[in-house]
Amino acid sequence: DIQMTQSPSTLSASVGDRVTITCRASQSITGWLAWYQQNPGKAPKLLIYRASSLESGVPSRFTGSGSGTEFTLTISSLQPDDFATYYCQQYSSFPYTFGQGTKLEIK
Amino acid sequence: EEQLLESGGHFVQPGGSLRLSCAASGFTLTSYSMNWVRQAPGKGLEWVSSLSANGLAIHYADSVKGRFTISRDNSKNTLYLHLNTLRADDTAMYYCAKARSGDLSPWGQGTLVTVSS
């Protein structure tokens, strides 16, 4: 199975900050990576697919990059709605696997 | 608008069984791969199972293989997850989600399964 490791597990930041979350795969997944945002008590929401493609309706302050084994999600200027938990997911092969999550907290 | 609505979650004793349903609207299940993902209380996301668009390819996580079965009713445009021999560590919110290449969207709101004696 492909292991996905996110860092950091928790990130404290302020409105307006630029933040970056990293996701590493235990083997190459080329570009088969998605990023999701989850708010408490809600279902996850797709933000980025194919490592860098922005899902329709998602604000352009979200940017995904990377290929192979190392990927990043960057939020250019944090807004109040962005304080949530973020997960990466590989879909290069079954079983699909998720990172353990990064909780973005208000500083 | 594409929507998914899960149901069937319940409190059940260890060793029991449940059937979860996921009713799709705004698209046809036979055109897309469909997946189940679960989330234990306070924990991260765990992929559970996948059913291909043509219904011929089925995959399961090792943690549920042999106990859970994914299926669908094309006439009802509904996806199912049959859960057997339930254990305490199966306690979770269960989400269904539509897949494109494997990226999942949309997701349903989830249905809660609690396994406890």
Structure write-up:
The complex is a heterodimer of chains A (107) and B (117). Chain A is mostly beta strands and 107 residues long. Helix content of chain A is 0%, strand content 50%. Chain A has no helices and eleven strands. In chain A, β4 and β5 (45-49) form a beta hairpin. Chain A starts with a strand and ends with a strand. The radius of gyration of chain B is 13 Å and the shape is globular. Chain B is built from no helices and eleven strands. In chain B, a hairpin with a 4-residue loop joins β9 and β10 (104-107). The N and C termini of chain B lie far apart (40 Å). Chain B is mainly β. Chains A and B meet through β4, β5 and β10 of A and β5 and β10 of B.
Question: How would you summarize the topology of this molecule?
Answer:
The complex is a heterodimer of chains A (107) and B (117).
Chain A: E1 4-7, E2 10-13, E3 19-25, E4 33-38, E5 45-49, E6 53-54, E7 62-67, E8 70-75, E9 85-90, E10 97-98, E11 102-106
Parallel strand pairs in A: 2-11
Antiparallel strand pairs in A: 1-3, 3-8, 4-5, 4-9, 5-6, 7-8, 9-10, 9-11
Chain B: E1 3-7, E2 11-12, E3 18-25, E4 33-39, E5 45-51, E6 58-60, E7 68-73, E8 78-83, E9 92-99, E10 104-107, E11 111-115
Parallel strand pairs in B: 2-11
Antiparallel strand pairs in B: 1-3, 3-8, 4-5, 4-9, 5-6, 7-8, 9-10, 9-11
